[in-house]
Write a structure and sequence with these properties.
The protein has 461 residues and is an alpha/beta fold. The chain is 36% helix and 20% strand. The protein starts with a strand and ends with a helix.
């Protein structure tokens, strides 16, 4: 038996001519079945009815196969491009190959930096079809690499990735690239009057920072600003979180990871876009210097905000990012953040929420439906503005009610959005990590990388 696996769809003639084999595959609980046929190791993928053929479904199958074969220590798996033509008539062959490669690479992802016994074995995928399929294979790899980069950042330990090291890690990643990285330290933030970032970061032993990523693939295109929340660890501050396990709070910089990954993807593709990534970076910890509930922050735009709860810190630093987007004169602004637990309650762990410009929200929904970063348009209800009322400042950072938490967070951010731009707010708090399924390992998802990059590309066309 060859130690090389060949991937077929169940429409393969050898499977179709054997009633028992066909039935065995169709009765399998998984979407695919590894088996030995005529002395050859094959992976038989169940027939996908046309109405259920999607690129995301293909990514999920590819990721699951990659993980299964890697655990069996199969060195290589081969699939011919004709398999996609015959088995997936509803999908474009080139795009299907890209999706399969992308899913395969992400399904093979492992974060084993701190494991003494590393299992780094990965089954290599070979797509046969000559030079005509090479661009689609390469595109799948590039998309997967950018998402994996975001996963790496999100999975990293908070004593390794913090407000002082995170900017250096980003700078190193973009060395020798066509992305310009600007890092502003605490002293610069004071001059720039980024008082939200400075206030939230007061209690940490690490000084806060702010990173700008400039990629100008075509400066004739409208400037798009991507603002990502970079809280490297969130204890809640003085309003301390009360949960059994806080270790996942290292992923509270998921928005920052999404922005960095999206810029990496766009730059790697040499996309004809004009984009800047804006990443405020803090650690939110309790200390004798931490911001106290009741304190008031005066922002550069003149707004004053009473800190009703120090665990609603993400919006306080994003406010500075939005003000900065206005200084850049961005025509489109998208901020992304692990902002509220409320969005997870509303939409669950498979789909994020998007607020703001209605037309753009539905465009982003369509993009996510195609690339797997699922998102759903949510309302900004003006009647809830009063929930942010403060007796001492212009408004508070937390709602006075126990309802509509994700909406009021969006309403807070809206007050800092530059008037001249079209704006979206993505709340990804519910989708930062996943159980092991499809191309998702039991770790960070890397959500938002493909969503933002594809959105920027489409808006720029």
């Amino acid at each position: 038996m060859s130690i090389q696996a060949t991937i077929h769809f169940s429409i393969d003639s050898r499977i179709q001519t054997s009633k028992h084999l066909k039935q065995f595959i169709e009765n399998s609980p998984a979407a695919f079945t590894p088996l030995v046929l005529d002395g050859e190791l094959i992976v038989a993928v169940k027939e996908m009815k046309e109405e259920k053929q999607t690129y995301e479904g293909l990514r999920m199958i590819a990721g699951a196969i990659a993980r299964d074969l890697s655990r069996r220590f199969v060195p290589k798996a081969v699939i011919h491009h004709d398999v996609f033509k015959k088995g997936l008539r509803k999908l474009q062959t080139g795009a299907a190959i890209t999706a399969f490669v992308e899913g395969w690479q992400l399904g093979s992802y492992k974060f084993d930096t701190y494991q003494s016994k590393k299992d780094s074995f990965k089954t290599i995928l070979q797509v046969d079809g000559g030079a005509e399929v090479s661009p689609f294979i390469e595109l799948g790899k590039i998309r997967a690499e950018a998402t994996a980069y975001s996963r790496d950042l999100m999975n990293e330990l908070p004593n390794v990735l913090n407000p002082e090291t995170f900017p250096m890690m980003i700078k190193e990643e973009f060395t020798n690239s066509n992305v310009k990285v600007n890092v502003f330290n605490k002293e610069m933030l004071e001059k720039m009057e980024m008082n939200g970032v400075l206030t939230v970061g007061r209690g940490s032993k690490y000084k806060p920072s702010f990173v700008e990523l400039e990629y100008h693939g075509d400066e004739s295109k409208p400037l798009i600003a991507l603002v990502g929340k970079g809280v490297t660890f969130d204890t809640g501050g003085i309003s301390l979180k009360i949960v059994k396990d806080l270790s996942d709070m290292r992923m509270d910089m998921g928005g920052a990871a999404a922005v960095a990954g999206a810029i990496k993807l766009l730059a790697a593709l040499k996309a004809k876009v004009n984009v800047v990534g804006l990443i405020p970076i803090v650690e939110n910890t309790p200390d004798n210097t931490s911001v106290l509930p009741g304190e008031i922050i005066r922002y550069k735009n003149g707004s004053t905000v009473q800190v009703g709860n120090t665990d609603a810190e993400g919006r306080l630093i994003l406010a500075d990012g939005l003000i900065r987007a206005g200084e850049w004169n961005a025509e489109y602004v998208v901020n992304i953040a692990t902002l509220t637990g409320s969005i997870g309650i509303a939409l669950g762990s498979k789909i994020a929420g998007v607020f703001g410009d209605e037309q753009l929200s539905f465009k982003m929904k369509e993009i996510g439906q195609e690339n797997g970063d699922f998102i759903w348009p949510m309302p900004l209800v003006d009647a809830y503005e009063s929930y942010l009322k403060s007796d001492y400042a212009d408004f508070s950072n937390i709602s006075s009610k126990t309802e509509a938490g994700s909406i009021t967070a969006g309403l807070f951010l809206r007050r800092f959005v530059p008037e001249s731009c079209r704006w979206l707010h993505v709340d990804m708090a519910g989708v930062t990590e996943s159980e092991e399924t499809g191309y998702y390992p039991k770790s960070a998802t890397g959500f938002g990388v493909r969503l933002l990059a594809d959105f920027v590309t489409q808006v720029s066309e």
